[in-house]
Amino acid sequence: MLTIRMWCFGCGFLCQYHMAILCLMFLRWEGRNCQPQTEKLPGFKIEAPAEVTVQRGLCVLVPCKFIVGPGFTVTRDAIGIWFKGTESGIVATSTNASQFPDTTNGRFIFTGKVSAGDCSFSISDAQPGDDARYQFRVEDGRPIRFYYTAVQPTVSVTDLKRPDISPMKTLRADEEVTLTCTAPTNCPGLSPTFTWEGSVNTERTKMYKLPQQDGNVIYSSNITFTPSPRHHKTSLTCTVTYKRESTKKTITLKVDYLNKPEIFPTKKLIAGEQVTLNFSSFGNCMDNSPDIAWDGNINITNIENDWMLHPSRHVTYLSYMTFTPSQTDHNTSLTCTVTCKGISTKQSIILDVGTNRESCLDPIVIPAVVAGNICILSLMGLGICWYNKGTRAVQEKDNKASATIGGTRASSIEEESIYQNI
Boundaries of each Ig-like domain copy (predicted)? Predict the structure, then answer.
């Protein structure tokens, strides 16, 4: 009789508290990375990643699916709750009910639909304090109030990565180029600000938002500029700024260039006399076999090309061109072009050819020299005339003085003879 009473008491206890006992049972998991596992209680399954990683200041989605066992139904009134660590740290719920206050300023959002078995949630503007384990609970009135404590996805918050700048290639001087800075996030609604800094012109920039099929967005910024030799080995920085975080990447520009060449000597040439013109171009475009070409309507006798490597990893390309100019080459153009790795630079001169060495005198100088000689001769003539005139005047004066002295002496002699006669 006692045994029958105890059996009846036990059956009544189980019937009254079987749901409470069910709620105290834990789900057992042995897998990782969203692989479905079988619970101790038949029919209860859940899928969730064992660990997700998010960069500081960015966002992440934690996907989650669950089902309940036979005899249980999840209704439209079911509530999903995510806890941080323990039951007391509620971070996201599927309802806006006042009994579940927002403790994350809207950074944690329950994105799934509980009645459809979706328990996914997202984190935006992730902070170091979000680095923890999380557990899920479903409530649907008295029939279901269940903790999935054995499935606790871990969220790991890492440092913010640097943006990516592409393409990373050697630039060419005076050739327009566009570089792209891609932000290290694809979170929709988390549009960053891009800033470019460097010695190049940073005014031509444009931001792009490229939606993806999975709902994410690629954020990037383009900068277009024309590099010059002075931009070689200078820095270019792209800074990406989010709500509370920023990150940047700096690259060093490499610009291949050749300075505008020189042709010398630039003097008047003599028709029929052989001459050698020298061409030189300095730069950092390294090529053992550049293309150096002379272009002009002249009779070229010989061309020799050479190059010199400097300790600073710069190079000077040289070319020596020998020809014999003719009078018909006068006022014609002569051009030398050097091409290295697709970079070209050239220099042109106008040939000045005379018929003989005397013709080397400038046509403007000759009349001036003649006029100068005439002036000199005229001055010399005037000087001679003036000298002759002065000489004659002196002679006449001397003659007059001599005549006066002679008359005086004659009078004295005459008077003296008269006295003697007396």
Answer: 153-252
